[in-house]
Amino acid sequence: MSRSNVRRVAVPVTSAAVVAGMMLVGSPAGAAPTTTSYKNSCQASAVLTVHKVADTSMTVDAPATVAPGETFTYRIQPGGASYPNSESGATTTNVSRLKVDYEIPANSTFVSAAVVGTGTNLDGAAPSVLRVDDTGNANGSGNVLRLSGSNQTIANGPSSSTNSEGGIRAPKLKKDLNGNGTSGDSWFRLPAVDVTVVAGAPGVITPKVRTAGNAGNYNNDMNYYSFLPRATFLGGTQWAPTRCTPRDAQGSALNAGAGPLATITVSDPGPVIVDTTTTLNVPGTAKTGTAVDLTATVAPAGATGTVQFKDGTNNIGGAVPVNNGTATLNHTFTTNGAHNITAVYSGDATNRTSTSAASNVQVTTDPVIVDTTTTLNVPATAKTGTAVDLTATVAPAGATGTVQFKDGTNNIGGAIAVNNGTATLNHTFTTTGAHSITAVYSGDATNRPSTSAASAVDVSVNVVDTTTTLNVPGTAKTGTAVDLTATVAPAGATGTVQFKDGTDNIGGAIAVNNGTATLNHTFTANGAHSITAVYSGAEGFATSTSAAGTVDVSTDPVIVDTTTTLNVPGTAKTGTAVDLTATVAPSDATGTVQFKDGTDNIGGAIAVNNGTATLNHTFTANGAHSITAVYSGDATNRTSTSAASTVDVSTDPVIVDTTTTLNVPGTAKTGTAVDLTATVAPSDATGTVQFKDGTDNMGGAIAVNNGTATLNHTFTTDGTHNITAVYSGDATNRTSTSAAANVEVSTDVVVADTTTTMNVPGEATTGDQVQLFALVKDGDNNPAVGGTVQFTINGSNVGGAISLVDGGAKLDHTFAASGAYNVGAVYSGSATFHGSTAQASSVNVTDPAPVELDTVTTLTAPATATKGDAVNLSATVKTQAGDAVTTGTVTFMDGATALGTAVDVVDGQATLSHAFALTGDRHITAVYSGASGMKESTSAASTVTVSGGGTNPGGTGSLGQLGSIFGS
């Protein structure tokens, strides 16, 4: 076919006139429809390949607001479209295989979809809607809703063709929309689709056309809009399969038209008012003049408000607040007879009122003795060393007294008091095997004793998870040995650690000792070595593998940057020595630190040891002294200087506030000495502490030593003793008095000795929270009951006193500075257990690795260019905070091909002058390389349409003027 005989056939496009004249059918949402205008970027393939951008639109009728979980329907419909009936001797026969794909919107659950109406000026297969997957096949789990005729398309479906009619067809119009004869363009419009979904969580639901994955790529079989134009010329047939993907309204950004076509707000409907049930628990009998508990349980458990107990129609006392779902009134009946008790719940903001069923309490002067049943509830299995609950339930529920739990014939601990009909023992099994457990109820004044049926607990070894942490130097020198250290938590783990260089073992397995395993290793090859540590596991401990650590090995040492941090007191007294401390990072730095007062050296250089250097210095002149620390550097570490810190020096001392904390046992035995300890902060305080029992002094004042003062005291009288500690103050510290603490003194208290042990991580990172554990046991290895644990760091209290739970106490702590810390724990003691102090444990705290910032790269490129003529491609690189990036390079890409060499980023900008050698649409991106402290990033793609210097082969205007797509 010669160029002069080519017939140009049009691809359908949206027309504002058609949109205005073709309204949506009905209005399912009851809100004004929203019409979104954007552009289609299409490619038609025939004898020639033609690229076109044209206006289009989509109309959505949806509710503005729905509630979470609400089922609702929205309607979506494309705008009208057209094609020329004839041009240049060729005749357009029709457009068929019309298909539009919509995405099922996020934050919703698909229910159904249905076609509304038949559209305008359409024939062929009846329009239908299917749920399809990425391949275009019908799939109930697919993410796409397809409007088509029997899924007959040009591509991306089970019934596809680019050279035969099928599916929905738009025939040539014999008349225009007003019924008049026409030889102009043929107009049509696809029908609407009703989509029914269930709303998700509060937020938004945004209907969109299909652009996910490859569907957003230009001229892709998965494009949301495709169709097949057909034309006749000289008795022959020509086909032009066409694929379209959206652009924004300006036509500059590919896929920008994939944004929301409407926004449906999913709003929180506010609190839901629910029904409640109130259950009453009262004793069946009571004795006149003896108090009993009346308890109401309100469901759901989170209910607040109050409960009013009633005897018949009369209120019993005032309303009782609901706490953790229950309200209890301790009540004394004064008259004999049957009392009809109810409980009336008041309700609250989210819970309705409710009234319990009535229960009778038979009140007599003499108690009624009743039979009881004891039911045992224990776990079927347990692990050694892990506490489990053994629970006995005694009926009737008002029973008091105690329950003795037994393992076979042996008692498990002491008898447990019955409370609200239950007694629970938190017990740790120490031996494996089957344990036969029973519960023996003691009875009380109105309830006979009873014994539960036996229940078996199968106890096995407790296997705990482990974590393995690797500590290796960042650099090493070939032929020089370095330590590779693995720390296994928890600290009691045994077994071995195998160090690995990549997948190769480094030597043999190393035994774990006190939670660590260390290999002294000499690297023989230069390069980056990826080191891991694999813990073997042991009885009771699971295996674990550390994160990889990299050691850069070279013949010559690697010189790294350092930071020097200065720690000095804010004030000092003339003639009194104070410590000036510098901390050098990384912590393995050696060399010296020279402290300076202004520009003058303070003494000589101080050697760096374990990353720190300390000078004990006496200022001789009053005033503000500007102190700095200058690190000398060493073979592998560069020099650095700290920020300046000011020390205000004066002749008169600086008086500071103090706090005095008192630690006393909760109980003591008459005639047996106990320790009363006061801790004064700051820890360098001197002076004395006077302990007091009420207003009476207890002996003489006790000198403060290393921040503490202890009085060994013997109480001679039973009863409650209210103890305080009064600190005297000294030249630089003000007086202070502790909070009062009670000691219950009696003749019959038996107090057991205890041992406090600690479990803390060997390594920690500044800013990251770690857990400090303390465990308190008696001489029989049973957990201590009652009392508190006070944790200390380097001798100073940290956090408040923590009550024991199952013999243990836990403190979540975050270290603010790097260095070595000694962590201790002091148990206060309780009614039956003496206090004890744990042996201190070391924690090595290091600073975290530097954080790389995310970057954003934005590309600026012209929309068009001429082959061979240079144009500027510019990239702007910023951090997410909006700061300009000043290092790294940008490579400009045409698809997968680099354009020239990388361009340096200067003040956040990189520009490349480039002349395109190929015509057509060029899809350009800018790739930022990243740099120290900066992550890589890639811009969104921009399309540059390159022409050959004459007529643009893509043409301009609407898709109704595609140009010679059927010949050349």
From TrEMBL:
Q: Where is this region: Disordered?
A: 148-178, 942-968
Q: Which residues form the Bacterial Ig-like domain?
A: 281-364, 377-459, 471-553, 567-649, 663-745, 760-846, 860-947
Q: Answer whether the UniProt record assigns the keyword Signal to this protein.
A: yes
In terms of superkingdom, the source organism counts as Bacteria
Gene3D superfamilies xrefs: Immunoglobulins
Q: Where is the composition biased (Polar residues)?
A: 148-165
| Alphabetic keyword roster | Signal
- How far does the signal peptide extend, from start to end residue? 1-31
Q: Could you tell me where the Gly residues compositional bias lies?
A: 947-960
Matches recorded under Pfam families: Big_3_5
Q: What is this protein called?
A: Beta strand repeat-containing protein
Q: Which organism is it from?
A: Rhodococcus kronopolitis
